[in-house]
Amino acid sequence: MKNILSVDVEEWFHPEAVQHLFPRESWNDCEPRVVANVDKLLELFEKKSATATFFILGWIAERYPELIQRISDRGHEIASHGYSHRMVTKLDRKEFGNDLNQSIEILQDVSGKRILGFRAPTFSVVKQTSWAWEVIRNLGLKYDSSVYPIHHDRYGIPDAPRQKYQPLDDDPDFIEYPMSTLRILGKNIPFGGGGYLRIFPLKFTNWAISKLNSENIPAIIFIHPWEFDEKQPVLPLGRISKTRHYFNIKNNLLKLDHLLTGYRWTSFEEYLGKEN
Ligand SMILES: [Zn+2]
Question: Ligand 1 centre and the CA of 116: distance in Å?
Fold first, then answer.
């Protein structure tokens, strides 16, 4: 079976863990690194015949339209990561709607394709922001992939379903794809992306993907371009934050290479299409 590959396209100065160091006004003065990092991923995906969903910030698409076209021309899905990487938990309904709408308009404009999906910055669709699904649906999207069914200090709906579900009672066509977890000793264990993917050994990741596949569930992998960039500026973060943020970036491309070789990969769009 095919698993789902996704990339959250943002710069090295966008993640929540470093955002206190980079107020919005400073972004234009930061060294741009995203284009080279995405191109590195595109090359690997091409070599491995892997198709992916790219959840892209509107801010990025505005600056590098040719990058978005390149991603789209290679058959990957263009989806939204919002405009300015603000967590939904820090916005009200109207602010979130404006931010998301702005990103959808830019991405559609640049790619010439309809945008179907959204991933919230820092998985910030949580219990207190469950109103977000209605906003996302009302802007014409078909799916969301923002829920992490785990306990975490920044995000998570620990008791959310571990498999795709319909979060809106009045709309069975709108789907939530929660991040992959394994159920071990009564607990949901994350493994499929970001720091989890970098910290766990390849053997464990392989076992986790195969375990989900044996239950007929596709694994969802999520990565960020900056997680493959050894030369990015190293920032003064606290100990835990630093570990989560920079651990094993050096070996991450090789690990991804192994995963792309060992399994078949597709986008959410293609997966949705196959189901309907
Ligand atoms: Zn992000």
Answer: 18
Closest CA to 5 of 59, 44, 57: 44
Which is it for strands 220-223 and 175-176: parallel, antiparallel or unpaired?
unpaired
Q: What is the CATH number of the domain that holds 175?
A: 3.20.20.370
Tell me, in angstroms, the distance from the centre of ligand 1 to residue 71's CA: 18
Distance from residue 262's CA to the centre of ligand 1 (Å): 26
User: For residue range 78-136, what is the model confidence (pLDDT) as tens digits?
Assistant: 999 999 999 999 999 999 999 999 999 999 999 999 999 999 999 999 999 999 999 99
For the chain, the domain total comes to 1
Q: In terms of pTM, does the model score above 0.90?
A: yes
The CA 81 to ligand 1 mean position distance, Å, reads: 7
Q: How far is the CA of 21 from the centre of ligand 1 (A)?
A: 16
Beta-carbon contacts of residue 28 (< 8 Å; ≥ 6 apart): none
The domain of 64 spans: 2-275
